[in-house]
Amino acid sequence: SGPLSGEQKPRILLMGLRRSGKSSIQKVVFHKMSPNETLFLESTNKIIKDDISNSSFVQFQIWDFPGQIDFFDPTFDSDMIFGGCGALVFVIDAQDEYNDALNRLHQTVTKAYKVNPSIRFEVFIHKVDGLSDDYKMETQRDIHQRANDDLADSGLDQIHLSFHLTSIYDHSIFEAFSKVVQKLIPQLPTLENLLNILISNSAIEKAFLFDVVSKIYIATDFSPVDMQSYELCCDMIDVVIDVSCIYGLHEDTGAAAFDSQSSSLIKLTNGTILYLREVTKFLALVCILREASFDRQGVIDYNFLCFREAIQQVFELRSKNQVAYNSSSQA
Ligand code: GDP
Fold first, then answer.
1. Cα distances (angstroms) measured from residue 239 to each of 233, 242, 243
2. Which DSSP string do the residues of 180-192 spell out, in sequence order?
3. Sign of torsion over alpha carbons 126, 282, 51, 319
4. What distances in angstroms separate CA 11 from CA 3, 124, 150, 238, 314, one per listed residue?
5. Cβ contact 38:27 at 8 Å
6. Which atom of ligand 1 is closest in space to residue 38's alpha carbon?
7. Residues 149-173: what's their mean pLDDT?
8. Among 48-52, 107-111, 137-141, 183-187, which stretch is predicted with the lowest mean pLDDT?
9. Which backbone phi and psi does 180 adopt, to 5 degrees?
C-alpha cells in the first residue's frame, strides 16, 4: 500500500530556532487557532509529535523541536527522526536578525541529508507580514543566496532547498504548506489530470481539492493559482463548517460537521459561484465558476460524480458494496 494509506505516513518535520514561529504555524494551520491567539503561546522546549492523521487526509506528523537541540548529543536519534521523514520545513524569522538561523539551517540540512538523501528541504521565510514588498524580495534573495553558498562551500550543492515567504496573518502559510504536502503525494499528477478533465468538461474556472481540516489544497487544475481565488475557497470551507457545526450537529445522532452529504453553493453579487462537494471523508472539491455556466448544473453534477468515483479509485477507498451514487443535499 502507498504512503498515504496505513502505517507508512509521510512525515513532515517542522524545525527552526526558538521563537521563529513553529508552534504558531502548527496551531493556525492544523488546529484552527486564530493568529492573534499565538501571541500567548508558550515557547516550545520539547519535541512535540503532533499526529493529525485521525482528522486529516494529509497523514503526517509534525515534530516541533526546541531551537537549541544539539545534533551531536547522543540522545538525539537522527536516524529515527530524519529516516522516515518526507519533508523538513525549516522556519526562519524574517523580522529578526537571521545569521544564527542560517547557521542552524545549514547544520540541520547537512545532518538530515546524510541520514536521508531523499528528504525534501523547505525553507519558510516567516513573519513577512511585517516587511515591505521590496524588503521581502531582498530578504528572500539574500537568504536563498547565503544558504546555497553555504552548501556549495561544503561541497553539497546537489542539495536542493525550496523557499516560501510565509505569514500566519494571511493565507500564505496555507499556500506554502499546500506546496510542501503536494510534493509528498505520489498520486498528484493523476489528481491534477482528473481536475483538468473535470473543469474543461464543466465550464468551471478553477477547482481545488481541499483537505477540509487544514485547508491545505492537495491538488488543483493546471490553470495558475491566484491567491484571491484560493482565499475565497478557504473562506467558503470555514463558512460551511461553521454553519454545519452550529445548525447541523445533533448530539443524539453524533453526525459530523462534514460528511458524504456535505455540499454547498454560494452566489456572489459579481456573478461568481462557489460550489463545494464532499469527495471523501477528509476531502472536498471547491470550484469557482460563472453564474451562466451553472445553468447546466446537471452536467456539472454528473461530471462531479464521475470525478469523485475516479478519486476514490485512485485512493482505493471505494468500498465494494457502495453501488448507487448519493445525490446531493444542500448544506
Ligand atoms: P516557536 O518557539 O518557534 O514555537 O515560536 P512561537 O510559535 O511561540 O512564536 C513566537 C512568536 O512569533 C509568537 O509571539 C507569535 O505570535 C509570533 N509569530 C508567529 N508567526 C508569526 C507571523 O507570521 N507573523 C508575526 N508577525 N508574528 C508571528
1. 10, 5, 6
2. HHHTT-TTHHHHH
3. negative
4. 10, 17, 26, 26, 21
5. yes
6. 16
7. 96
8. 48-52
9. -65, -45
- Any idea how long the chain is? 331
What's the gap in Å between 93 CA and the centre of ligand 1?
Answer: 8
Instruction: Give me the pLDDT at residue 81, please.
Output: 81
pTM (2 d.p.): 0.85
Of 197, 109, 184, 180, nearest to 147 by C-alpha is: 109
Instruction: Give me ligand 1 centre to Cα 22, in Å.
Output: 7
Which grid coordinates are listed for 160? 536542493
- pLDDT tens for residues 171-217? 999 999 999 999 998 889 999 999 999 999 999 999 999 998 889 99
**Alpha helices of 154-296 — where are they, by DSSP H?**
172-182, 188-202, 227-247
Q: Which H or E run contains 30?
A: helix 22-30
- The three grid cell numbers given for residue 172, joined into one nine-digit string: 500564505
* Ligand 1: centre distance to CA 127 (Å): 7
Query: What letter does residue 170 receive in the DSSP assignment?
Result: S
21 lines ligand 1 (CB under 6 A): yes
Spatial separation of the C-alpha atoms in residues 210 and 215, rounded to whole Å:
6
**Number of DSSP helices (H) and strands (E) in the chain, helices first:** 8, 11
Which three cell numbers, joined as nine digits, stand for 121?
528541504
pLDDT (0 to 100) of residue 325: 41
Measured in Å, residue 38 CA sits from the centre of ligand 1 at: 7
Ligand 1: atom nearest CA of 169 is 23
- pLDDT tens digit string along 240-276? 888 888 887 666 555 566 777 778 999 999 999 999 9
Measure 244 CA to ligand 1 centroid, in angstroms: 31
Q: Which long-range contacts (CB under 8 A, 24 or more apart) does 131-136 make?
A: 131/94, 131/95, 136/94, 136/165
Which atom of ligand 1 is closest in space to residue 24's alpha carbon?
7
Q: Is the CB of 34 under 6 A from ligand 1?
A: no
ipTM confidence:
0.99
